[in-house]
């Protein structure tokens, strides 16, 4: 009888424990999602102050978790330099760390992530949202006929920044052609002003001149030319390529571009520009907030000029540069897809992009800024794909170095072309195959 009473006494306790266990079971079963940023730049609202990045991320994640109660924790892991981003991502995957969603820049998506199998195609997501994106946005994440990243991005374009006050003092208008700019050079020099300055120490910026010139020498078929080159159907030493290098070098020889630019990094270049000692520099719309904050003069933008001798028209390079990718090692790819799809919806993309105050965005339903500078830059769109998103990384490094040397006067355009081709030939001999 005593044993029965003890057992009877335990029944309410056991029932209570069962209810409690049932109540906490869903919480224990909730899923964890890891959003990986290969570098500290690969975050939501990149480049914004830390508190803005934090508040933007928390606002979006809270909205996603409300729509997906099965998610208990979302971890964001963005660290390190851009240069080390590829290695950090590969190491995390090789170590078996949880990596589900990757905040991915278009450059490494094209040059590394897709070709190395670090990410999975997202054609199904993009296909279902095809009308969402602005022209060219998904093309920037397309490699080998497949889409590898869902764009959720500010749109940037290459452009010249110029000091309107200096142009007015010199009595010159914004140049539409290279020849007009060349003719204006002596008038700026007469004021003791450098016509064009460049961040020459940053080798990755020099190919902008070559790319922009190549667009015109190839009659705006620069991307097709690069693809032919990588398939062995064209060469860097072909006339259109050598001519593009010669036109790039002419900026120095004709007295427009300061030959001492190779001694300047980005900060030094901008210091010269902000001080009024240089009239213009070639950069990108990502610089607009900085110029707006630091220029103590009236300023504006203008597109890379037209070479009157060439068949093509000027282009701006850029477009959507950031997106979300699905890690090929994700242990929960369905949840990762849900997160990426949710982020790409207009209302949610607006949360992520508004802090950037972009000139335009990857989304038709998310407008860019409407200030006069942004309006000018929107006139450049759609932008063309950066060619260093197409060249293999090893080749890009050589092109950067060769164009830098050529612009610094240590080798001729012909020598630069020959060295670039020699590097590619060596890559082919070592087993490089386009698309693999």
Could you walk me through the main structural features you see in this protein, from its secondary elements to its overall organization?
By secondary structure, the chain is of the alpha+beta class. It folds into two domains: 26-154 and 321-378, Periplasmic binding protein-like II (D-Maltodextrin-Binding Protein, domain 2, 3-Layer(aba) Sandwich), CATH 3.40.190; 156-317 and 392-429, D-Maltodextrin-Binding Protein, domain 2. The chain contains 17 helices and 13 strands. The protein has helices at 2-29, 50-67, 85-94, 106-113, 123-128, 164-170, 178-189, 207-217, 222-230, 239-253, 266-274, 288-294, 333-344, 346-353, 372-378, 393-407, 413-429; strands at residues 31-37, 71-78, 101-105, 119-120, 142-143, 146-147, 150-151, 155-163, 194-197, 278-284, 299-302, 318-320, 322-327. The strands form three sheets. Strands 1, 2, 3, 4, 7 and 13 form a six-stranded mixed beta sheet that branches.
Mean pLDDT: 92
- Please, how many helices? 17
Helix content: 40-55%
Structural class: alpha+beta
Return the CATH architecture of the largest domain: 3-Layer(aba) Sandwich
**Oligomer category:** single chain
Outline, from the CA principal axes? globular
What letter string, H or E per element, gives the SSE order? HEHEHEHEHEEEEHHEHHHHEHEEEHHHHH
According to CATH, the homologous superfamily of the largest domain is Periplasmic binding protein-like II
- Given as residue ranges, the uncertain stretches (5+ residues, pLDDT < 50) are 1-28
The biggest sheet amounts to: 6 strands, mixed
Task: Classify the fold: give the CATH topology of the largest domain.
Answer: D-Maltodextrin-Binding Protein, domain 2
Strand content: 5-15%
Function: Part of the ABC transporter complex UgpBAEC involved in sn-glycerol-3-phosphate (G3P) import. Binds G3P.
InterPro entries: Bact_solute-bd_prot1 (IPR050490), SBP (IPR006059)
Main location: periplasm
Subcellular location: Periplasm
